[in-house]
Design the sequence.
């Protein structure tokens, strides 16, 4: 048996750790769509350089109508402007279990997970094999709208892309 409070702390820590893992996806997003580059910075008196994030791009050809007919032009397309973006997050955690609950003499609440055994009695409900616990943990992940700042950043790259494409 364990203290109920310890069980709740363990569940809470597990949920916190899972949420941090999902939040790490934001950092992966930056690495996936941007490169860190060093550029000259006259305002930086120490090194004269600064590190900036430059969007990863790919070259794509687009048709352009000219007086001589249709010509193909090459455009540098920011990958972040053409990929679907979603922000995963944990929206709900469900923990359900049958517990054996008892109180100690000093009023601490103690819980235990019951041990279920196979039953051969036909009148008793069937139990799937021998399980030491019957706890279930369900985590629901959903796509979330990206933050407003990211939306504006992507909109800016889309405008820059449109400016490169004739017509």
Sequence:
């Amino acid at each position: 048996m364990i203290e109920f409070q310890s069980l709740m702390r363990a569940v809470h820590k597990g949920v916190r750790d899972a949420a941090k893992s999902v939040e790490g996806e934001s950092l992966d997003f930056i690495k996936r769509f941007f490169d860190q580059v060093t550029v000259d910075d006259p305002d930086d008196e120490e090194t004269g350089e600064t590190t900036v994030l430059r969007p990863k791009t790919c070259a794509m050809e687009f048709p352009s109508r000219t007086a001589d007919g249709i010509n193909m032009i090459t455009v540098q397309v920011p990958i972040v402007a053409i990929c679907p973006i979603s922000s995963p997050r944990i929206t709900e955690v469900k923990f359900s279990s049958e517990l054996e609950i008892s109180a100690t003499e000093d009023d601490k609440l103690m819980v235990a997970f019951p041990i279920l055994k196979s039953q051969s009695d036909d009148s008793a409900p069937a139990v799937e094999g021998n399980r030491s616990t019957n706890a279930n943990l369900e985590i629901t992940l959903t796509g979330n709208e990206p933050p407003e700042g990211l939306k504006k950043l992507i909109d800016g790259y889309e405008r820059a892309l449109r400016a490169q494409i004739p017509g």
